[in-house]
Amino acid sequence: MKFSLSSAFLFGATLFSCASAAPLNAGPLNLDSPNLPALPAIPSLLSGTPVGSLLSGLNKRTTFPTIGTENLAVQIMASIKAKVHAHVLAQISVQVAAHVHAGVEAHATLLGGIISVKKVKIDAQIKAAIDRLRIQVDADVQALVEPQVYAEPQVFLVKAILGKEVAEKELLLLVAHVIADVQARLQVELKKIHVKLAALIHPHIKAMIDELHVNLPVAQVTVTVNVNVEAIVHPCVDVAIKACATLKAHVSPEAIVRAL
Q1: 9: DSSP letter
Q2: Model-level pTM?
């Protein structure tokens, strides 16, 4: 599918509006103010306590055995979800954005000649538009996949720990089970999203082109995106499917429990 936009605008107005914006000046902070609370001396904070113990206490807030709560299950699921997103789902939007960016062509006609994209300084606007596209596609991927992947594992985890005294070893086993369940569900869902995701990407690209207003004096700018959305979605999703196969190596139960 081919998308195109032709537009011409005045560059001077943009430069003027950017130059007229003045930064706020909140003034310097007076560190000698009598209203500032006194801080205890550093030696008194560390007196008789090894620094390693202090750091360990900062890194680990939950002591075991602990009583399982719904909030604890939510924390665990949020941590798993964040790691899955970083390692697997985010790969799709990154790949889609890269393919679309590769299909962008921009030409400016000035005094009857063609000048390069770099000379007319529209790269920054195109990159910003591509980044907005990446964010939109990422949101679409999460909306298509996450409800089917995380809901039941979270219900299982809540039932397994709610109101019970849970040892650290027991919680590690439960978290490992949840990660394996999430991985299996994710592999199934990723194989289903190609058609729906492609349908969602089409209007994003059209909107991106509509928003690419290139401000140039006495110039006609043509921005074209030559990309077959249906063709690029499959390899982009395949990258995520391959990443999903190595999920256990990147989502560790020990790291999740240690962060609680």
Answers
A1: B
A2: 0.71
